[in-house]
Write a structure and sequence with these properties.
The complex is a heterodimer of chains A (218) and B (266). By secondary structure, chain A is mainly alpha-helical. Chain A has a single domain, classed as MetI-like (MetI-like fold, Orthogonal Bundle). Helices cover 81% and strands 0% of the residues of chain A. In chain A, helix 1 packs antiparallel against helix 2 and helix 1 packs antiparallel against helix 7. The termini of chain A are far apart. By secondary structure, chain B is α/β, with parallel strands linked by helices. A 6-stranded mixed beta sheet of chain B has the order 8-9-10-3-11-12, with helices on both faces. In chain B, strands 2-1-4-5 form a 4-stranded antiparallel beta sheet, covered by helices on one side. A two-stranded antiparallel sheet of chain B has the order 6-7. The chains are: A mainly alpha (218), B alpha/beta (266). The interface between A and B is medium-sized, with 20 and 27 residues.
Amino acid sequence: MSWDWRYAWEIVPALLTGLRTTLVATSLGFALALVVGLGWALLRRSGPPLLRLPATALALFVRGTPLLVQLFFLFYVLPGYGLTLSALATGVLGLGLHFGAYLSEVFRAGIESVPRAQWEAAGALSYTRRRTWTAVVLPQTVRHVLPGLGNYLISMFKDSALLSIITVTELVFAARSAAGQTFRYLEPVTMTGAIFFLVSYPTSLGVRALQSRLDLAS
Amino acid sequence: MRPEGWGGSTTDPFLVLRGITKTYGSEIVLRGLDLEVARGERVAIIGRSGSGKTTLLRLVMALERPTSGNVILGSTPTWPEHDRRGQPTASERHLRHVRTNIGMVFQQFNLFPTMTARQNVAEGPRHVLRLSRNEAEKRACDLLERVGLSKKLDRYPSELSGGEQQRVAIARALAMGPEVMLFDEITSALDPELVGEVLDVLRELAVDSGVTMLIVTHEIAFAREVADRVVFLADGEIAEQGPPRRLLDDPTDMRTKAFLDAVLRR
């Protein structure tokens, strides 16, 4: 089987449409994961004591089960209980929850990296609890967690390929449809890999650049 | 009961530490300490490391809760209630209110690394005292100018020397308009050549601010120069106190003598 440039060129539009869905799923999923992860970390750290243990247990459970199983559960099981979401919404929810569980660990470590003396300095200045979090602790946390967040963003981007299995028409789904019509796999699969790399590598460079800029300012 | 040689300038105490005991597990850091400070008085607190000096300041700042006893500022007890085990306690809200009257400068500066010098100083006035953005900024700039940093307003702490960081920290505490300022060995973490600039600021403050000051320091010469009274702490108690000249030149307590000999003979 030799590389067919004409065929490769033909499927580019379909793959790019798929990539757009991949990017949409990743950005929405990551936004959700940030909110879920930070909320989870705050809940586990200073939420009502009755909720701390269940929150910790749930995070443990989510991290200990495959994303694919979670996606299947959301996509095939929940509708049986009357909760039906579109494939894309299900995918975003799955990515958000799954990676939220990981990000909560990242945030937790980041929050704990802020020295006690910083809390005391804020206390000595009579900052409210809320202001201490937003003005002192979280900005330092963000700086600390940025490389970790960047790595998880790239992981999520790649893992979003799993959404093809619950019929989200993202990049891998587009490649499989193209291949399914022609039985040529070489071009769609190779190009899909190349496209993933072309997005993830510059992103990792960007994360690194951002990190060194923040280092300068601290 | 006041020891002989009491150096306070008035009989009306403004800040009172009453019967303060502080223990960590089985370790007793302060044992039933009493101290009265008059409004505007400048008290230097000296003593060996581990004698409880820093703990004393942290108790006044309400960063530590006494095991028993109370701190009273004006007529307000810092710890108005007792918990089930009889330890003094207070609500977060009450503590925040108490702390607005007190400023503290730490040995390690503890500036906020994600804020510029100006932001470090303006943040409290803006969000705690609820000044307008302009007023808070102006106050920050004025104070930073007063500590000689008008050219470094927008530098981050990591871009400042230790002496500069400590001066920002002093401005940050002053910006809240405290009635009492606490200085916790503020030159101990500095390179020797940077000590002078920080003491200059502190000296100026002592002379013309009228703020009540508690200064924990190892700089005996400085204590002699600016303090109205020197308190010598040993073993969690006030071993001796009095006007600087009397206490530093003619100590009566054996522990004071030994300490001063050790420090001054360096």
